[in-house]
C-alpha cells in the first residue's frame, strides 16, 4: 500500500428530515448566501423546507447556477458575496451547485489575480475560503464529502477540476427523499458517475490494498443491485438511501487512499462536456467502457476480480476481464444510459480529432501508467 494522509472534516447528517438540523449547523450570526441551480428545489419542496429552517438567519439568494457550472456565472455570485458581505454559503442542489459554491467561496476571498487563472489553471494552494455547507439533492459526485470542484469556462470552452483541503463542506445534509423527484436521466447519470469513480480508483494495478478493494466492490455491488430498483420505483426509500451513500462513499477518499488511481475516463469525459455539452454522467457512460476495452490487458487482474465478485463470471483472467467490460456495458444499458457518441449526435471523428489535438497541445498524459496520450485518446474516442 502507498503512503497516505487522510482527513475529512465534513459533518454528514443523513436521513429523512435531516434538514431540520440546519439551525444547529449554521453559524448564528452569519450572513448566508442561499445558492442553488435552475429551480428543481422550488418544484420538489426542498426550497420551502430550507427556507423554513432559515428563520431568524440573515440571508440573500443566488439562483441559476447551471449543470457543468460556469465560471462566468460563478463570478456574478462572487460580486453578490462582496456586495452583501456574505460570510457563509449554503448550497442546495446537485454537485454542480456545490462545486460552484466551493469555487466562489475561494474566489470571493482571493487577494489578487483572476480566480480562473489562480485557483484552477495555476492551481496555487488556496489559503482561505468562506465556509460552505450543503443540502445535496443528487447522488453522483461525492462533492458533499470531498474537497474537489469542477468548473467550466464557457468562453474558453474548457472544463477543469481543482481541489483543496479547504474546499470540503463543513456539513452536508443528505435526505434521500429529496432524490424522489430526480428525472430518470439524472438518476442514471448519478449511478454511472459513481460506477466510474470506483473504476478510476480501483481498476488499476494492484498494490495490495484489500480494504480499499473491498470498499470499492461493495459500492459497485450496491449500485448494481439498487440502481434498477430506483429506476423501477423512484420512491423506494431504502434503495435511494443506499444509492446516495454509495455515491458519497465512492469519492470521499475511503476508496482512493493508498492505491494507484487512473482518471483517464474523467479526463476525456470532461472534454466531451466542455466541447459538446454532454452531462458528466453521459460522457462517462460513453468513455469508461472504451477506456476499459483499450486497457483490458493491463487492467485484467482488477477487472477479473470485479467480474467474479459482482457478475459471478468464471474462467481465465483475461477472458473474464473482457467479459466484465461487456457486463458493465450491459449494466449501463439496463439503467437506460446511452453508451455511444452517436446517441448524443456527436461525430466520433470530430471528437477524436478535437480532443486529441487539445491533449497534444497541452502535453496531457492520463491513466495509471501515463500511457493515455493524444494518440491513445484518439483511438479510444474512435471506438466510442
Ligand atoms: O439546476 P437544478 O434546477 O437544481 O436541476 C438539476 C440539474 O438540472 C437537477 N437536479 C438536481 N437535484 C435534483 C434535480 N432535479 C430533480 N430533483 C432533484 N433532487 O439535475 C440536473 C443536474 O444537476 P448537477 O448538479 O449538474 O448534477 P451532478 O450532481 O451530477 O453534478 C455534475 C457536476 O459535478 C462535476 C461534474 O463534472 C459536473 O460538472 N463533478 C464533480 C465532482 C466532485 N466535486 O467531486 C466529481 C465528479 O467526477 C464530477 O466531475
Ligand atoms: Zn465523476
UniProtKB/TrEMBL annotation:
Enzyme class: oxidoreductase
GO molecular function: alcohol dehydrogenase (NADP+) activity; butanol dehydrogenase (NAD+) activity; metal ion binding; methylglyoxal reductase (NADPH) (acetol producing) activity
Keyword Oxidoreductase: yes
Family annotation (Gene3D superfamilies): 3.40.50.1970, Dehydroquinate synthase-like - alpha domain
Entry keyword set: Oxidoreductase
Residues annotated as domain Alcohol dehydrogenase iron-type/glycerol dehydrogenase GldA: 9-176
One Pfam family it belongs to: ADH_Fe_C
Top-rank taxon: Bacteria
Sequence similarity: Belongs to the iron-containing alcohol dehydrogenase family.
UniProt protein name: Iron-containing alcohol dehydrogenase
Amino acid at each position: 500500500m502507498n503512503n497516505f494522509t487522510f482527513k475529512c472534516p465534513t459533518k454528514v447528517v443523513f436521513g429523512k428530515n435531516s434538514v431540520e438540523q440546519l439551525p444547529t449547523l449554521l453559524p448564528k450570526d452569519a450572513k448566508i448566501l442561499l445558492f442553488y441551480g435552475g429551480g428543481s428545489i422550488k418544484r420538489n419542496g426542498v426550497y420551502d423546507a430550507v427556507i423554513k429552517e432559515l428563520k431568524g438567519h440573515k440571508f440573500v439568494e443566488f439562483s441559476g447556477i447551471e449543470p457543468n457550472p460556469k465560471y462566468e456565472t460563478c463570478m456574478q455570485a462572487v460580486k453578490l458575496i462582496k456586495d452583501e458581505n456574505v460570510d457563509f454559503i449554503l448550497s442546495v442542489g446537485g454537485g454542480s451547485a456545490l462545486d460552484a459554491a466551493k469555487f466562489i467561496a475561494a474566489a470571493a476571498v482571493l487577494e489578487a489575480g483572476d480566480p480562473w487563472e489562480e485557483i484552477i489553471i495555476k492551481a496555487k494552494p488556496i489559503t482561505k475560503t468562506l465556509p460552505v455547507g450543503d443540502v445535496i439533492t443528487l447522488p453522483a459526485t461525492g462533492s458533499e464529502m470531498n474537497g474537489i470542484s469542477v468548473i467550466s469556462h464557457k468562453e474558453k470552452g474548457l472544463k477543469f477540476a481543482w481541489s483543496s483541503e479547504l474546499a470540503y463542506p463543513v456539513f452536508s445534509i443528505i435526505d434521500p427523499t429529496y432524490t424522489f423527484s430526480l428525472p430518470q436521466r439524472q438518476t442514471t447519470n448519478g449511478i454511472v458517475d459513481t460506477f466510474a469513480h470506483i473504476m478510476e480508483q480501483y481498476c488499476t494495478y494492484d498494490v495490495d490494498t484489500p480494504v480499499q478493494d473491498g470498499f470499492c466492490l461493495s459500492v459497485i455491488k450496491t449500485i448494481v443491485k439498487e440502481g434498477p430498483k430506483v429506476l423501477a420505483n423512484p420512491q423506494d426509500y431504502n434503495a435511494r438511501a443506499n444509492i446516495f451513500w454509495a455515491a458519497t462513499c465512492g469519492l470521499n477518499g475511503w476508496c482512493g487512499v493508498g492505491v494507484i488511481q487512473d482518471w483517464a475516463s474523467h479526463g476525456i469525459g470532461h472534454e466531451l462536456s466542455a466541447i459538446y455539452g454532454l452531462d458528466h454522467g453521459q460522457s462517462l457512460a460513453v468513455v469508461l467502457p472504451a477506456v476499459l476495452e483499450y486497457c483490458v490487458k493491463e487492467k485484467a487482474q482488477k477487472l477479473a476480480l470485479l467480474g467474479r465478485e459482482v457478475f459471478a463470471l468464471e474462467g481465465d483472467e483475461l477472458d473474464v476481464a473482457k467479459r466484465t467490460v461487456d457486463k458493465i456495458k450491459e449494466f449501463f444499458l439496463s439503467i437506460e444510459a446511452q453508451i455511444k457518441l452517436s446517441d448524443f449526435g456527436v461525430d466520433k471523428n470530430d471528437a477524436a480529432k478535437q480532443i486529441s489535438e487539445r491533449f497534444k497541445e497541452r502535453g496531457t498524459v492520463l491513466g495509471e501508467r501515463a500511457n493515455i496520450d493524444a494518440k491513445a485518446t484518439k483511438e479510444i474516442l474512435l471506438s466510442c
